[in-house]
């Protein structure tokens, strides 16, 4: 546990700094292009394209397959050197080819994701996309190197490198504001403006990837280009990745439907850019808590699964869900009652913040279920089973599509106003995630002959019970600070301060009630928190 604790703290600390600088990056970006402007939505679509395409060809493969396979390859006579060399060569070739094709196809990709944009907005998004799509190559290399470092228990660089990306982006976006003025200063986008804004985003990814390569020596592996892709187990990766590829593809197709639906939203109402910023807020606790604690557990769980120690795997599942749950329930309560001041960080006015808060609340419905899904899904991966996750993810994607289409129908019929369309899409996604985690948990329970669901569900119930008075205390604090007309919603910076104050109140009350309930998980949580203190190891 001490190893997992140290790794969790290292990842968590890096994630906190990364997310804080990412928040500042988003604030500066909103100041540059506006939260509900046509230019902001055009940039949001273009800058998301490389993430979406990279996810189709790479993310699922890396997270689901590479870590367990590198762990296994470490037992080879050469320590996995030949395997990793071939893997890197193949990955680089695929990423480079995909980057070239995607960049050439930029106009069609923009039309696919945002068909309801007008001609001028589509042209602007396409211009942004030409600058942003080369990120695919560098995102892929970053993840490939990072997952290899994780598999060798070198967790820090993968977590801390994105901070440099954020700093580069902040500097570039500030330069954009200095050169061309803040949002709304100009309605005409020149080639120079496009190059500075989108080029900055891509430069940040390039620098981030370059820094990560500097830490490769810590893996102890010496790799070289190797185009002989037979003989060291890449075939096994291909079999496992086939289902993972289909799973990620299904998710991206569902995302395309959501993007196409939200492209109907007129300028001035919460649209694609607001949804992206709400998702950024949603991902703050997920990244800090779920990824920092869950990633080391996944490496350990993979080792136990590979050795056939199924009882220890069941123990890993229960401990990780209970530990994650304690933090995630508190984060959900805090972010829910602080939704308006938190949303003010990424919006230009109190009215925009109130509308964006509705989108955030709809996403938050699925935060706790997704923490459970993280553990359940990766347990399947640890047993080299990517087929089962494909099917329960396909179910989730189908529900996402149906709910998005339902929201669009309601919007078209005049039942749903434009200001609520994005929130409806987000709520549909959360509902789909809840169904997904229920089905996934049931399937894993059947596969392992029981995963002690009752014990960790009881713990989650205990956390939820403590969260109720904590949320009430947080909401009363928000009202005492003036509510929707108070100082916490009057400015971006004050919104961040207000959200922090509300969050602290929620956490203090939450911990107090858990102490009254004598929750045993508090001991584990306090141990993790103490590791963040100076001088602790």
Explain this structure.
- With 537 residues, the chain is mainly alpha-helical.
- It folds into two domains: 263 residues, no CATH class; 190 residues, no CATH class.
- The protein is built from 19 helices and no strands.
- The chain is globular.
- It starts with a helix and ends in a 7-residue tail after the last helix.
- Pfam families: MurJ (PF03023).
- Keywords: Cell membrane, Cell shape, Membrane, Peptidoglycan synthesis, Transmembrane, Transmembrane helix.
- Its main location: membrane.
- It comes from Microbacterium arthrosphaerae.
List keywords for this structure.
mainly alpha, 0% strand, globular
> How much helical structure, as a percent, in the residues?
over 70%
N to C succession of SSEs: HHHHHHHHHHHHHHHHHHH
Radius of gyration: 23 Å
- Cα distance spanning the termini: 13 Å
Major sheet details: none
Beta-strand content: under 5%
Q: If helices are DSSP runs of H or I spanning 4 or more residues, what is the number of helices?
A: 19
Query: How does the helix and strand content classify structurally?
Result: mainly alpha
Give the total of domains: 2
**Uncertain regions spanning at least 5 consecutive residues:** none
Rough outline: globular
Overall mean pLDDT stands at: 83
What kind of oligomer do you see? single chain
Give the tally of β-strands: 0
């Amino acid at each position: 546990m001490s190893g997992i604790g140290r790794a969790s703290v290292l990842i968590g600390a890096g994630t906190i700094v990364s997310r804080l600088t990412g928040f500042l990056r988003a604030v500066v970006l909103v100041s540059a292009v506006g939260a509900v402007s046509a230019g902001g939505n055009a940039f949001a679509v273009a800058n998301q394209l490389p993430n979406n395409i990279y996810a189709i060809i790479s993310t699922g493969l890396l997270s689901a397959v590479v870590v367990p396979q590198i762990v296994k390859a470490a037992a080879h006579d050469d320590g996995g050197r030949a395997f990793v060399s071939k893997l890197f060569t193949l990955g680089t070739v695929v990423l480079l080819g995909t980057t070239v094709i995607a960049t050439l196809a930029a106009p069609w990709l923009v039309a696919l994701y945002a068909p309801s944009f007008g001609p001028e907005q589509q042209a602007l998004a396409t211009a942004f996309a030409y600058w942003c799509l080369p990120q695919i190559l560098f995102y892929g290399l970053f993840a490939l190197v990072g997952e290899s470092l994780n598999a060798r228990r070198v967790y820090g660089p993968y977590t801390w490198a994105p901070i440099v990306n954020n700093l580069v982006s902040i500097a570039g976006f500030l330069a954009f504001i200095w050169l061309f003025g803040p949002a709304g200063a100009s309605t005409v986008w020149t080639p120079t403006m496009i190059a500075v804004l989108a080029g900055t985003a891509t430069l940040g990814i390039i620098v981030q990837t370059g820094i990560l390569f500097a830490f490769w020596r810590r893996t102890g592996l010496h790799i070289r280009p190797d185009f002989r892709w037979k003989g060291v187990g890449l075939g096994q990766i291909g079999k496992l990745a086939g289902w993972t590829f289909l799973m990620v593809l299904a998710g991206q197709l569902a995302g395309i439907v959501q993007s196409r639906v939200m492209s109907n939203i007129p300028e001035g109402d919460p649209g694609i850019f607001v949804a992206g910023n709400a998702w950024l807020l949603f991902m703050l606790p997920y990244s800090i808590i779920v990824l920092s604690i869950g990633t080391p557990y996944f490496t350990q769980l993979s080792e136990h699964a590979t050795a056939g120690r199924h009882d220890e795997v069941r123990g890993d599942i229960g401990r990780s869900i209970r530990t994650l749950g304690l933090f995630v329930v508190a984060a959900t309560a805090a972010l829910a009652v602080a939704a308006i001041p938190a949303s003010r960080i990424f919006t230009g006015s109190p009215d925009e913040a109130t509308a964006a808060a509705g989108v955030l609340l709809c996403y938050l419905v699925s935060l706790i279920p997704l923490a459970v899904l993280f553990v359940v899904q990766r347990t399947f991966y640890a047993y080299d089973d990517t087929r089962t996750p494909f099917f329960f993810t396909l179910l989730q994607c189908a529900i996402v599509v149906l709910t998005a289409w339902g929201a669009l129908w309601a919007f078209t019929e005049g039942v749903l106003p434009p200001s609520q369309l994005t929130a409806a899409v987000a709520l549909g996604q959360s509902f789909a995630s809840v169904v997904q985690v229920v089905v996934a948990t049931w399937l894993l329970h059947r596969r392992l002959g029981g995963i002690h669901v009752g014990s960790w569900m009881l713990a989650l119930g205990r956390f939820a019970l403590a969260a109720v008075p904590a949320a009430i205390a947080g909401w009363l604090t928000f009202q005492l600070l003036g509510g929707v007309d108070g100082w916490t919603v009057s400015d971006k910076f004050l919104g961040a301060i207000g959200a922090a104050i509300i969050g602290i109140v929620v956490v203090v009350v939450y911990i107090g009630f858990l102490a009254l309930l004598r929750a045993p998980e508090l001991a584990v949580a306090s141990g993790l928190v103490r590791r963040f203190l100076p001088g602790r190891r």
